[in-house]
Amino acid sequence: MRPEEFSQHIIGFCKPIYEFIGHSSDEVIKDKFSRKFGEGGVKEYAYHLMHILKSAHPEFGTEEFLRWVDQSNSEKIDEVNQFLMKLAERLTDYVIDTLKRVHGTHRLASDEQAFWEIGVESERIRRNAFEAQQNDKARRKPKEAYLNIVDLAEIVKQNNNWPHFEYVFKNALPGERSGQKYYLAWIQDFKELRNIAAHKNQLKTYTDADLELVEWLRTEVHPKLPS
Description:
single chain
């Protein structure tokens, strides 16, 4: 194919984009292509352009893009997002409530509450929570509110905590080798899913394997949490 023929082919293929730009209002253009910050900005621009092309070329697009199209306005995905965010909240609340019940909320010589000093031995976790609290000047909450999902794994496996958390947190993933003490690998996978749910407007999508893991969480982890 000669260069001029190739260029005409590209121009024809991209005609839906030219028509969109020519006929759309400033508000619509701003909504789709206003400046975006963060690593997802360029990708989001590309996906919006690809979505315009897809209207004229239904088979156009990468597997990841097509997954984004399917999930962008899906009630099922909205429900998955809500489930994951709620599960993260319930797991965190369960850990904090259990630590308070087991170790108490009285003040120690350090002036820290017992559940925090005894129940959270990791200086790194306590320091990170404190720093996050201090940085959150507008809504400053108790330090324990700034624990993240991976922190929970380290906290629950402490020798003085594990007997109180084993029932809820010891969950072997499908295919995971037998004979392990803790079976907490699922927490890292859950963290990745929760990040997708929390950043649903930044082009993150769920794979089929992700959605299978969501159903595993529904049946294996969620029912163990107290209502």
